[in-house]
């Protein structure tokens, strides 16, 4: 695979959530970003993903603070923390989605800690997929009287937006954001859905 055959990623504005090598920044400025760190050396092992990468605007302010993030190596912006999200429209199981977020984007499935972030991710999902559900990084496990919920990135469980009757009891479920109303649903983890990575 030639360097110019690598799928492109739409970057809306500068980023400051994850540290990336200078080479990737240079490639982004040229309009070409590899989907994995090994893409420059050899063809991707997995199918290429349909991706859209977007920065969360300042007015949403749902990103955890600078202490939780590494700032991008841009001298004019020390200590800043801005969430970036990658919407992958190709359907994958929850576990596959987690692996793609980690390996290709050095990130994780999105965790949601307030209504503004939920609204922003709902907007992104509607705009970039045709699916009714997209994976987010929450899991619910059986417990009495209510299921125990947690984020896969181990961030605090301080916000939820479940549809009535969810999370479902009785077994381990993964969580999907419903694109028609922004509510969350318990979904079997082996179901294949588009997903949102936080990077």
Outline the structure in words.
By secondary structure, the protein is of the alpha+beta class. Helices cover 18% and strands 23% of the residues. The protein has helices at 22-30, 94-105, 115-128, and strands at residues 51-55, 84-92, 108-109, 133-141, 148-151, 173-178, 184-187, 193-198. A 4-stranded antiparallel β-sheet has the order 1-2-8-3, sandwiched between helices. Strands 5-4-6-7 form a 4-stranded antiparallel β-sheet, with helices on one face. Strand 6 (173-178) and strand 7 (184-187) form a beta hairpin. The longest helix has 14 residues, at 115-128. It is globular and about 35 Å long. Mean pLDDT is 73; it is low at 1-23, 32-48 and 56-80.
Layout: helices, strands, pairs:
Layout: H1 22-30, E1 51-55, E2 84-92, H2 94-105, E3 108-109, H3 115-128, E4 133-141, E5 148-151, E6 173-178, E7 184-187, E8 193-198
Antiparallel strand pairs: 1-2, 2-8, 3-8, 4-5, 4-6, 6-7
């Amino acid at each position: 695979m030639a360097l110019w055959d690598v799928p492109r990623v739409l970057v809306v504005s500068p980023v400051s959530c994850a540290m990336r090598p200078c080479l990737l920044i240079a490639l982004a400025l040229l309009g070409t970003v590899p989907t994995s760190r090994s893409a420059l050396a050899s063809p991707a092992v997995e199918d290429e993903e349909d991706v859209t990468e977007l920065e969360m605007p300042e007015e949403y302010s749902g990103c955890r603070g600078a202490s939780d993030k590494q700032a991008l190596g841009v001298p004019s912006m020390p200590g800043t923390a801005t969430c970036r999200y990658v919407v992958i429209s190709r359907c994958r199981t929850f576990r596959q989605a987690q692996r793609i977020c980690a390996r290709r984007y050095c990130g994780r499935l999105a965790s949601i800690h307030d209504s503004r972030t939920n609204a922003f991710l709902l907007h992104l999902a509607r705009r970039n997929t045709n699916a009714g559900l997209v994976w987010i990084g929450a899991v619910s496990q059986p417990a009495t009287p209510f299921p125990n919920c947690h984020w896969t990135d181990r961030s605090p469980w301080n916000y939820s937006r479940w549809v009535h009757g969810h999370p479902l009891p009785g077994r381990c479920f993964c969580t999907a954001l419903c694109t028609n109303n922004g509510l969350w649903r318990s979904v079997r983890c082996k179901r294949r859905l588009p997903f949102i990575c936080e990077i």
